[in-house]
User: Fold this.
Amino acid sequence: MEKLLIRGAVPLKGAVPVSGSKNASLPLMAAAILAGGRSVLRGAPALRDVLTMGALLEQMGARFHFSPGDCLAEIDTAGLNRPLADYELVKTMRASVLVLGPLVARHGMAKVSLPGGCAIGARPINLHLAGLEKMGAAIELEEGYVIAKTRGKRLKGASLYFDLPTVTGTENLMMAAALAKGVTVLENAAREPEVVDLATALSAMGARIEGAGGSLIEIEGVDELRPYSHDVIPDRIEAATFAVAAAITGGDVLIKNVRPEHLDAVSIKLRETGASVKKTPAGLKVKAEGRPRSVNITTTPYPGFPTDVQAQFMTLMCTADGTSTINETVFENRFMHVPELKRMGADIELQGGMAAVRGVPALKGAQVMATDLRASACLVLAALAAEGESIVHRIYHLDRGYEQMEKKLLALGADVQRIK
Ligand code: EPZ
Assistant:
């Protein structure tokens, strides 16, 4: 297992390019199922999850080619003849559930392994399934698989309401609705930029979608869609992670190829800690010096403070000059990084979904273990800020969502190396 050896307390300085969004690329790759032929996704990040989605599509009979050099993913679904997503692949990536809607819409059936829970919570897909059922699919659960069938009929448009603004639920049902007969309305839909990026590509394929980015999305189904050629949006979570890295090391970093408006909530909170966060033509400039001020955050669906940046921000608060409260409202168990941070000297108390973080003067290097994607990012940030040497174990979690993290950090002056 690979790990990262990091010697901390080095201010990061310089410019870092943000890669394409993982959470936009995954639904976009699934959307290629909706149109026979060759779709091209430009700017796709060279991440394990992208390769896993590619492997899933190939297992179904589609052709997938990824050239990391020019960040190009090509998916040709003309030969897709096996609408099945096996447990072996799905267990490594829950976002595989995104093939469900497109497969049912275009092939009339799908057999997709139920994505098990993961470190951060149970993460059910009941809202995805209820929506497909309302659109006319028959849903069965068998030996850990979801089997959805339309029995030769076409999905029909329906009015759907989400109890929670589920991101992949919104994406799955928007894709299914694109080929359904009639109009589908999604109420309390997710408003994330990745949903908007998917809607943009679907519209270029010939779909008729109004309202993406808001809570009410209307999709008028069409008979056929054509392949897309699309530039994926930059990864706002990677950008936010580097912004916090600049703040936590008292550095001065220019984050390039970013849509600043996609991380407004994070920028506002970073400014409250005393960091300077400036939109410039070249990108987002983040500068900080001295101890951050303590700041309270509550994670909520977009455009609120993203749950995917909660662990990173908590790390910044560990050395703040006061006590901060962090309220995690999206997932029920997203504090797995806390015991690891405490091993580095952090003073954190948990009560259910709330964390009280009492700032300490400095974190101390230690051996720590990553448990999930964003927890691994937070431990890297903690090691970058800590006095002394740290080793972050199980960084395969990190490689799922961050392209060449250590190379980007080295370019910013960090003392980091990947060791086997
Ligand atoms: C997406 O996951 C992201 N993944 C997650 O990013 C992100 O943390 C999450 O949205 C929230 O922003 C991708 O886009 C691939 P949800 P998703 O459905 O769609 C509950 C990362 O680090 N829920 O919006 O699975 C669910 O349990 C990952 O890149 C139901 O109850 O999240 C959760 O509490 C981690 N029933 C809440 O809704 C459902 O049918 C939000 O989940 C669906 C969801």
Summary: Residues 323 and 358 are 4 Å apart (CA to CA).
